[in-house]
Amino acid sequence: MSHFIIIGAGQAGSSLAAKLRDDGFEGHITLIGDETAPPYQRPPLSKAYLLGEMPRERLFLRADTFYSERNITLRTGAAVTAIDPVAKTVSLGADTLSYDQLALTTGSLPRQLPASIGGTLDGLYTVRTLADIDTLEPQVRKGRRVLIIGGGYIGLEAAAVAAKQGLEVTLVELADRILQRVAAPETSDFFRALHQQHGVKILEGVGLTRLLGETCVTGAELSDGTVIEVDFAIAGTGILPDTRLADPAGIACDNGIAVDEHGQTSVPGIWAAGDCASFPHGAGRLRLESVPNAIDMAECVAANMLGAGKTYVPEPWFWSDQYDVKLQIAGLNIGYDRIVVRDGDDARSHWYYAGARLLAVDAMNDPRAFMVAKRLLAAGKSPDPAAVGDPGIDLKTLMR
């Protein structure tokens, strides 16, 4: 009987295993994760879970009995050390497992600060895993001082939680503005003002020279010469695709594990999905870091492991929760040359255009704009920018 192994027990791995069973695969499935917890949601970790608003059990993607009832062997706390594509085996320490097909859903890793600038000091945290948050939680107490390094969504979400808990928050961003890599200046302006209203000190165009302290973080020297005292620091400098197993196995990597339009890697019988995988997009390659992509791509790969031959066509969307603002993003803003701003009573949306073509929308507390934008983008429609910017025009009419 065939044996399919999935390495990486996160959102993509769990979705892939479930889809294999849903599509009728009757062989053996082994889902391997290096964390001790069963597959869980990551987005609530640094928000509801850190705030104590969500119990640990609610993080888990499936009920305790799900995997046994589906005859899926879940191995947690098990680190795969090597893949042998010729022998078609994976090594877990002294154990060796043979596979017929293999899927890599290894996700991503937080960027680490170099040891030379204090990256190994105690009191420096990341916010990627359940263990990270459990370690960080005792530090998040009213009146403490935290430095957040990085003004992307990871850093801003951490800043929002810390500010809500009454900490003194300083955030540094080396680029000219927060969110510079992922959003328009209008969106940066919106979130800068939001954080400043909640007492967060945002320093843009300022980097970290080094963290201070003998063994534990006590302060930081910034690139403008400023020295500040802090009780701890959070590195929110982005994530990298986890290719630590793929690279030495000779699997082609290009901004992640390179796959074709079906999700297959350069090695026949080995597939990849989720944060770790880059796929063909236009004239280049694209890698998406989002829950929807992890689920959709994993389910497409599962079908293709069973011979479906489906092409993966992403419909990108993302979200971020900061204070009482829910940001929902539809589409990809790559190549935009114009922003149309639409204001509502308590809502706002930024519409990205390249010429007359709609590319993406950032919707702040505006679920209607988000849903209309998703439908427009899926249908390949681009409404008149003047109509989009007119709050007197009902968004639903843009679908006609």
Q: How many whole angstroms does the radius of gyration measure?
A: 22 Å
Shape: globular
Second CATH tier, the architecture of the largest domain: 3-Layer(bba) Sandwich
In total, the number of strands is 26
Q: What is the total number of structural domains? A: 3
CATH class category of the largest domain: Alpha Beta
Strand content: 25-35%
- Helical residues, percent: 10-25%
Strand order of the largest sheet: 3-2-1-7-19
Low-pLDDT residue intervals, each spanning 5 or more residues: none
**CATH topology description of the largest domain:** FAD/NAD(P)-binding domain
How far is it from the N-terminal to the C-terminal residue, by CA?
A: 52 Å
**Quaternary structure of the protein:** single chain
Mean pLDDT over the full residue set: 96
CATH-defined superfamily of the largest domain: FAD/NAD(P)-binding domain
Count of DSSP H/I helices:
9
Q: What class would the helix/strand composition place it in?
A: alpha/beta
Q: Profile the largest sheet.
A: 5 strands, parallel
Task: Give a brief outline of the structure.
By secondary structure, the chain is of the alpha/beta class. It is built from nine helices and 26 strands.
How is this structure best described in words?
- The termini are far apart.
- With 400 residues, the chain is an alpha/beta fold.
- The protein has three domains: 3-109 and 239-305, FAD/NAD(P)-binding domain; 112-235, FAD/NAD(P)-binding domain (3-Layer(bba) Sandwich); 324-399, FAD/NAD-linked reductase, C-terminal dimerisation domain (Enolase-like, domain 1, 2-Layer Sandwich).
- The relative contact order is 0.12.
- The protein is built from nine helices and 26 strands.
- Helices cover 21% and strands 29% of the residues.
- The chain has helices at 11-22, 45-49, 66-69, 130-136, 153-164, 185-197, 291-305, 367-379, 385-388; strands at residues 3-7, 28-32, 72-75, 82-84, 89-92, 95-98, 101-104, 108-110, 124-125, 145-149, 168-173, 201-204, 208-212, 219-222, 227-229, 232-235, 239-241, 257-258, 270-272, 277-281, 284-286, 317-322, 325-331, 338-343, 348-354, 357-364.
- The radius of gyration is 22 Å and the shape is globular.
- A five-stranded parallel beta sheet has the order 3-2-1-7-19. Strands 9-16-10-11-12 form a five-stranded parallel beta sheet. A five-stranded antiparallel beta sheet has the order 22-23-26-25-24.
- The longest helix has 15 residues, at 291-305.
